[in-house]
Write a structure and sequence with these properties.
Residues 11-156 form the MAM domain. This is MAM domain protein. The structure is a single chain. With 209 residues, the protein is mainly β. It has a single domain (10-158), classed as Sandwich (Jelly Rolls), CATH 2.60.120.200. Helices cover 4% and strands 46% of the residues. It contains one helix and 14 strands; from the N terminus they run E-E-E-E-E-E-E-E-E-E-E-E-E-H-E. It has one helix at residues 197-204; strands spanning 2-7, 23-24, 28-36, 45-57, 65-69, 80-87, 94-101, 104-111, 120-126, 134-140, 148-163, 170-172, 182-183, 206-208. Mean pLDDT is 79; it is low at 1-5, 162-193 and 195-209.
């Protein structure tokens, strides 16, 4: 299956100069660097990006849950691709990626595990929508300085065609050059507001280049 994407979105943001219309709740912060505490009582690790980025780090008395919310996006009758970079190396914080239609939230992905590398590229399929919607990055369990999540380089692309293929591996062609992304491999149930396995089975068969 091939999704051909062409239209960039007004929510695209590298956070280099400002929030590009995104709204943030404390402790989300626009910064060009942050320090990650060492679990081994060694010197803190300096986290930097290409330029500025958004980061949420807990501290004593901080909000345990905070949202980073995109500008409003028009309804789309076709699938879209959401791409972003994130860092989560230590701590117990969780990152949920959701779409918000009015007062209704639909979960696209939940990231709970820590990684040994910085700035992992994540790519998710956004379903069709009947109403204007927003992308929400929700950081939760921000309880200590070890609980850190960072976000950068957010892009949303709308598909223009959907072609069925029997090939085991297919390719997604983008008009804008986007580096290789990680894809979600485990299916998500329709239960509890999550997107169904149909969307995720599509994503399993996509190779971005």
């Amino acid at each position: 299956m091939v999704l051909a994407l062409c239209q960039s979105s007004s929510i695209d943001c590298t956070f280099q100069y400002n929030l590009c219309g995104w709204a943030s709740e404390p402790p989300w912060l626009l910064t060009d660097r942050t320090f990650l505490p060492s679990p081994l009582n060694l010197s803190p690790i300096l986290l930097v990006g290409d330029n500025a980025f958004m980061t949420a780090q807990g501290y004593f008395g901080s909000n345990s849950t905070a949202d980073l919310i995109s500008p409003v996006i028009p309804p789309s009758s076709t699938l879209s691709i959401l791409s972003f970079k994130y860092t989560k190396t230590i701590g117990d914080a969780n990152l949920q990626v959701m779409i918000k239609e009015g007062s209704t939230y639909r979960n696209l992905d939940t990231i709970t595990s820590n990684a040994l590398v910085f700035w992992i590229r994540r790519t998710l399929v956004v379903p069709t929508t009947l109403k204007p919607y927003q992308i929400v990055f929700r950081a939760s369990r921000l309880r200590t300085g070890f609980d850190v999540i960072s976000i950068d380089d957010v892009m949303l692309r709308t598909s223009t065609k959907l072609v069925v293929s029997d090939d085991d591996v297919t390719k997604l062609t983008l008009t804008d050059s986007i580096e290789p992304r990680e894809t979600r491999r485990s299916p998500v149930s329709y239960k509890n507001g999550n997107l169904g396995s149909t969307i995720n089975s599509i994503l399993q068969r996509i190779v971005l280049w």
